Structure formats: structure tokens, C-alpha cells
Amino acid sequence: MPAPITHDGPVRWGVLGAGGIAGSAGADLRDTPDCTVHAVGARDQRRARATADALGAPHAYGSYRDLVSDPDVDVVYIATTHGQHHEHALLAIEAGKHVLVEKAFTLTQRQAREVIAAAGERDVFCMEALWTRLHPLVRLAGDLVAEGAIGDVVSVTADLGWPFPYDPAHRLFDLDAGGSALLDLGVYPATYPLLFLGVPEGTTATGSLSPTGSDATAALQLSYPGGRFAHVACSVEAVMPGTATVVGTRGWLRFGSPLYRPSELVVHSPAADPEPRVHTADLPGSGYGPQFTEVARCLRAGEAQSPLVPHAATLALMGLMDTARAALGTRFAADGG
């Protein structure tokens, strides 16, 4: 098990990457209690310095290796593109650093297993930055379902889509960067059936590919024992509602758009209350704070993984993405063969 962080002062973060997510999520990290951005690392020193200045970090490095070699960095936030997560997570872990890895965690389940195994061998904390699992309304919904508020869950539907102009060099279409509607958007709706129904016993998928071979639209049908099911869809070619609905034998829950950061949770259980109940939760900034709070808590407690975003959940999600990509025909070099 990792040794608990006991030093005085907040948990010291290194941000690996200087792109869009490093700036938006990094701003929330900067403002999260018991956290401070100590350093930013990028391949370009000027970009690293600009991002570090924006996040109030005293140090900026022109290489990722220099960042992970900083002895004062407690944990590294991997904020590069999907195709780089495996390499960069292993780089930080090999340096003895705890890691929070942006979603999608890796390109494949095999890569995910390798990162998690490496973290275990080095006794460091490792978590996927699937911030939706930590949203207060998603956690509330989990509690309500566990309490039987809507009876037994029988189905989940969820989708997320937004059109992006086709550009073969854009990260959504570039296979070398991990271009994939499933890995960029689909991980969010796919998280809902995993949360409320578990790992499916069967998965079918249909959709379309972009000219580069990346998946552009995907629709997944997940089957469970007893006739339970889930329908998940994502697209970088069309606007989708961006909502999720969990149906039970005595009621239903609906997460308002966008489902990755639900605007509201509507709970309808007619036997208990004829009128739906609406729950809201105001999160500061862009809403990433809860994931950084959870990482800091785990590091203070000496935990190897978070019970809210466990390794098993990451592996299940990556396995689902592998199955769907294989059905659609999206292949990365990391798939081998």
C-alpha cells in the first residue's frame, strides 16, 4: 500500500500536459482545498510556462521527464491525449509518483491493466479522472438506488453527441492521438449502465467511421441477466440530448444535460410521491473539483485506489470500449495484430 502523505501543506500536484484540459481542469485543481499546482510539464517550455503562470505554479518544465523527476511533486495529473496516456502514466509511475490519468484512461484494456499493475508494483496511487462518478448528483443517485427508491433497476439509457468539423489532424479523428468518439464522449454515457447495472453479459454495437477510420458515431446495446438492458450512444457528427435515464420497477431517475456534469437529478417514484423531486448541485468552476478532493483524501489515507473510481470500474469501461471499437472496425496500433 502507498505510504500516506504526511508533510505539512497541501498535496503538491504536477500537471503533465499544457493543452485545453490542463487549463480548464487545472484551474479547478488550483482552487481545490488541500491541493496546489506545484509544476507544469510540456514538450514546449513556453507553453509549460504559460500554463504554469495561469495555474499559479512556481515551476515549469520543458519535458515530461523533468516534471516527474521533481522531488517535490506528490502526484501527477496526466492531461495529454488518449494515445499518450499509457506512456505518460508509466513514466510518472516509474518515477514513483501517484497518478490521476485523464479519461479515457488508455486506448485499450490491455494498456489499462499494464498501468494499474505498474502502480501496484511501485506502491503508488492510481485513478482514472472520470469525474462524473464523483459528481454529487451521481453519488446521490447511487445512494437512492441502493435504498430502493426506484425499486430494482431494469434499464439505463444514455447518450452524448456534438458535431465537430472533420479534420484528419484533430485529436478526435487522428488515430495516433487516440481519435475516437467512444473514447472521448462515449465513456460518459457508458459509465451510467456500469454504475447502475454493472458489467453486461453481452454487447452489440453499430455506428459509422470517419475517413481516417476513427469511430464517429456509435450505438451500443448492452444485455444483462433477466432481460435487463442498456442503450448507450455517442457521436461527433450529431447533437444528442446528453441525458441519462435509469428505470426501475417502482420509478425512474433522470440526469439533466450534460450528463458528464448533470444539471439536475429528477427522481420519480409514484408510490412514494406523486410529484417528481428535483435535486440540483452547484459546483464551482468547471466542476472538476470533487475528483481532486478525492485524490487528496486517498493520498492522505494511503489508499492505492479510490472506492469511488476503482480499478475494476476502469477496466470494465475499457473492456466495453474495446468490444465496441472492434465491432465498428476502429483499430489503433496499440490493438496489435
Architecture overview:
Belongs to the Gfo/Idh/MocA family. GO terms for molecular function: nucleotide binding; oxidoreductase activity. Keywords: Oxidoreductase. InterPro entries: Gfo/Idh/MocA-like_OxRdtase_N (IPR000683), Gfo/Idh/MocA_domain (IPR050984), GFO_IDH_MocA-like_dom (IPR055170), NAD(P)-bd_dom_sf (IPR036291). The chain has 337 residues and is of the alpha/beta class. The protein has two domains: 121 residues, NAD(P)-binding Rossmann-like Domain (Rossmann fold), CATH 3.40.50.720; 166 residues, Dihydrodipicolinate Reductase, domain 2 (2-Layer Sandwich). Helix content is 33%, strand content 23%. The strands form two sheets. Strands 8-9-10-7-11-12-13-14 form an eight-stranded mixed beta sheet, with helices on one face. A six-stranded parallel beta sheet has the order 3-2-1-4-5-6, with helices on both faces. Strand 11 and strand 12 form a beta hairpin. Helix 5 runs antiparallel to helix 9 and helix 7 packs across helix 9. The longest helix has 18 residues. The model has no long low-confidence stretch (mean pLDDT 97).
Q: Outline of this structure?
A:
This protein is α/β, with parallel strands linked by helices and 337 residues long.
